[in-house]
Structure formats: C-alpha cells, structure tokens
Amino acid sequence: MKVDFTRWLPAIAKDSYRKTALSVAGVAALGGLALAPTAAAAPVTSGPHQGAVAAIDRATGKAAASAHQDEQPVESGLTTGSATGKPPEGKPSRDQLIPHGIEGAQSRVPLDDAQLANARAIVDAAKKTGVGDRGAVIGVATSLQESKLYNLGHLGAYNDHDSQGLFQQRPSSGWGTPDQVTDPEYAATAFFTALKNVGGWQDLPLTTAAQTVQVSAFPYAYAQWEEQAADIVQQLW
Question: What gap in Å lies between CA 165 and CA 122, rounded to an integer?
C-alpha cells in the first residue's frame, strides 16, 4: 500500500535549492533505494557497498572515493574537521556528533559548491525538525551514500526504480512527487520526519538508524560516511 507521505509534512516553500537536480543517462544503477517511511529496522549484514558511489562517479565525472583504511583520506572543502581536535566555539563536539564511535573503514570525497549547498540544506532541515546535530550527521551520511550529496533527477533507463533526489526517495512509495523529492529542503525534512518515528533512534548506531528509514539492500553502507558527515555538520552547524 502506498503511503501518502505528504500529509505528514507542512507545506514547504520552494527556494533556490530547488531544481538543481542532476539528470544523467548511461550510469550504473544506484545502490540502496529509499522505500516508504518505516519504523522496522532491517538486519545489518552487508559490507560497504560501492554501487552507489560508482554510479555517481560516472554520472558526475568525479573520481571514486576509497573505502580502504590503508589509503589516505581526501582533504578538500568541508571534510577534515577541526585541526586541533577541539570544536570551534559554539559548534557541537565530536562526542556529540559520533556518540557510538565509527563502524568500519571510512570513505571521504571532496565537495564542490553544489554538494556544500545540499549539505547545508540538510543541516538546516535538521535544526528545523528538531533532530539536532546527531540527526544531521545521520542525514548527511545517508545522502553521501545515496547520492554523494548530489540532487539527482531521474537517470532514465538506468534509474533504480523511480528513486530520485539527495536521499534517493521513491515517489511510487509515498515519499512525495518527483518535484518534491528533488527539492532538498522537502527531501531532508521528509527523511528527518521518518527518522523521528523510529523509536530510540538517538541511541542507535548511524547505519541502523539510516537503514530503518531507507530500507536499503546494502544496510551497512551508511557507516562508511559517518566521520566525514560529522566534520561537515560540525562546520556547518
């Protein structure tokens, strides 16, 4: 049964973030698709999935990010966090942002202006919906996995069903219209509204919290982005 997700949300004004969706044909299918909002956690069984990363790399011409511990992380833009290990004044601490520690090898990617704008939209939505800085980390990490913080439109014949936007939400599963799920403010608000319906989400590991909302075929994949997501949120908060 399709869920009318729009009834959960207030009207969200369309702004300058809207219609920056990237539509590219001829790329591999994206890994991990956002089904209807759910509160039933799926088991964490798979290792980090490279399908979504490779698809966005091919779509945007970006170099693939490493998910291996023995490779150096990319240091570019909002990826490195505080140089001193102490948060800037008024910013959340590392312990607040990653209260349960990271799980497994971490990936990092350089961020361009479009990605930074989309990350800021997610952080702003986290503030407005009341999920706080930890919720923002979960949201940014989820988008890094699903779309590498690009607001993807329909990928034509290579699209993973009808998944679109920062969180690869499916209109056919009740997340909203194609215009809505490719509006970063709407998409992030929808994600956080669903997250708030997950009992005890604040106490869950990031990958479990994200997977409970997204119902991905690759549930562990979100974990690899937690460290970079925390750095981004710390600097944008």
Answer: 12
Residue closest to 136 by CA, chosen among 120, 147, 152, 148: 120
Per-residue tens of pLDDT for the chain, all 237 residues: 444 444 444 333 334 344 444 543 333 333 334 544 433 333 232 333 344 444 455 444 554 343 333 434 334 445 544 444 677 778 999 999 999 999 999 999 999 999 999 999 999 999 999 999 999 999 999 999 999 999 998 766 555 678 899 999 999 999 999 999 999 999 999 999 999 999 999 999 999 999 999 988 788 899 999 999 999 999 999
Of residues 37, 54, 48, the one with CA closest to residue 187: 37
pTM metric for this prediction: 0.71
As a whole number of angstroms, the distance between CA 123 and CA 131 comes to: 10
